[in-house]
């Protein structure tokens, strides 16, 4: 006889009968009829091949075999209950593990906010994060190494390719111009990009050169080629160069973070095409509650970012000149 053949429902009935010492009381606790409890016990005794219960006055008590099986059954039932709870948690996204790959600036802004939200709402769900560019993201998704990827795409909402992946548009990330605080246009609320054609520029290379490509393309569309006098690997370093007065630089809003002293951020009067930020996952992965909860948290974080305070610090109002003798 194999233990795996034992029915957990009959084991539950045995544990209840031993605990109450009565078929009638066990039936009341379980919501069964006394005859159903007796039938369950008779079937269990046939399965194990030994007597499990014996009369004791007006009640019943377990035999030695019955006591051993009841004790083992309690451990089995506890393990089964724990397993069911674990499956419920996984099914509802309350536990589990989700792996997320993000490009750098979203990894510094949207992703931390989403992970923080999940820590409050789903504390048993572990989020493993890493940074990478779009090429890494799609390769990792294809290989099953990540579950969700935050990527930049050249297309906006409604233009997704039909490539078997699930895409969720999170936000459009506009560009801003960073100026030294002493710049001639620092007191403006917006700047026409072509007006900066003769300025010195700071080049942000980025992980794969995409940042410089974006700046070159935006400036070309405005009618000039930027004169780069300094080069930074990432946008925080670019801000440091701008703060010294070396030059001006373009930056997407997600990449601005905390604006340094000595830097002012202004809107562009003619807005260039923004960066389009997407969450991407495999279509089958969306059936996993951990993944769907992660996507919901990312959408909420992106919405919060769009609704948050602007990073553009408005120029101080000019003081009215007071006429002499007034």
Keywords:
alpha/beta, Arc Repressor Mutant, subunit A, D-Maltodextrin-Binding Protein, domain 2, 326 residues, rod-shaped, 13 strands, disordered C terminus
Task: Give a written overview of the molecule.
The protein is an alpha/beta fold. The chain folds into three domains: 3-92, Winged helix-like DNA-binding domain superfamily/Winged helix DNA-binding domain (Arc Repressor Mutant, subunit A), CATH 1.10.10; 95-172 and 276-307, D-Maltodextrin-Binding Protein, domain 2; 175-273, D-Maltodextrin-Binding Protein, domain 2 (3-Layer(aba) Sandwich), CATH 3.40.190. The protein is built from ten helices and 13 strands. The chain has helices at 8-20, 23-30, 34-48, 64-92, 104-107, 110-121, 134-142, 210-222, 235-243, 289-307, and strands at 53-56, 59-62, 95-102, 124-131, 148-153, 165-173, 175-180, 190-191, 200-204, 227-232, 249-252, 263-268, 275-282. The strands form four sheets. It has a five-stranded mixed β-sheet with strand order 4-3-5-13-6, sandwiched between helices. It has a four-stranded mixed β-sheet with strand order 8-12-7-11. α6 (110-121) packs across α10 (289-307). The radius of gyration is 33 Å and the shape is rod-shaped.
């Amino acid at each position: 006889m194999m233990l795996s053949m034992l029915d957990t429902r009959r084991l539950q009935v045995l544990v209840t009968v031993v605990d109450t010492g009565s078929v009638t009381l066990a039936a009341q606790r379980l919501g069964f009829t006394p005859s159903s409890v007796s039938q369950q016990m008779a079937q269990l005794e046939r399965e194990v091949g030994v007597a499990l219960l014996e009369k004791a006055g007006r009640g019943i008590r377990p035999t030695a075999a019955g006591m051993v099986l009841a004790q083992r059954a309690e451990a089995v039932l506890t393990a089964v209950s724990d397993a069911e709870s674990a499956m419920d948690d996984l099914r509802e996204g309350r536990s589990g593990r989700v792996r997320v790959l993000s490009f750098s600036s979203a990894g510094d802004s949207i992703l931390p906010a989403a992970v923080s939200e999940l820590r409050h709402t789903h504390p048993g769900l572990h989020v493993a994060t890493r940074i990478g560019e779009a090429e890494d993201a799609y390769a990792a998704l294809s290989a099953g190494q990540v579950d969700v990827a935050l990527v930049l795409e050249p297309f906006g909402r409604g233009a997704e390719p039909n490539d078997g992946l699930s895409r969720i548009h999170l936000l459009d990330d506009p560009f801003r111009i960073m100026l030294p605080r002493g710049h001639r246009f620092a007191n403006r609320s917006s700047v026409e990009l072509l007006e900066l054609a003769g300025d010195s520029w700071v080049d942000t290379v980025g992980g794969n050169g995409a940042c410089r490509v974006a700046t070159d393309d935006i400036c070309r569309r405005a009618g000039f080629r930027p004169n780069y006098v300094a080069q930074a690997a990432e946008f925080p370093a670019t801000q440091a160069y701008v703060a010294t007065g070396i030059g001006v630089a373009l930056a997407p809003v997600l990449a601005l973070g905390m604006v340094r002293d000595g830097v002012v951020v202004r809107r562009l009067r003619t807005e260039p095409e923004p960066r389009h930020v997407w969450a991407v996952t495999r279509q089958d992965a969306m059936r996993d509650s951990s993944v769907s909860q992660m996507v919901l948290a990312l959408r909420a974080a992106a919405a919060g970012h769009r609704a948050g305070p602007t990073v553009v610090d408005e120029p101080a109002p000019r003081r009215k000149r007071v006429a002499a003798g007034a």
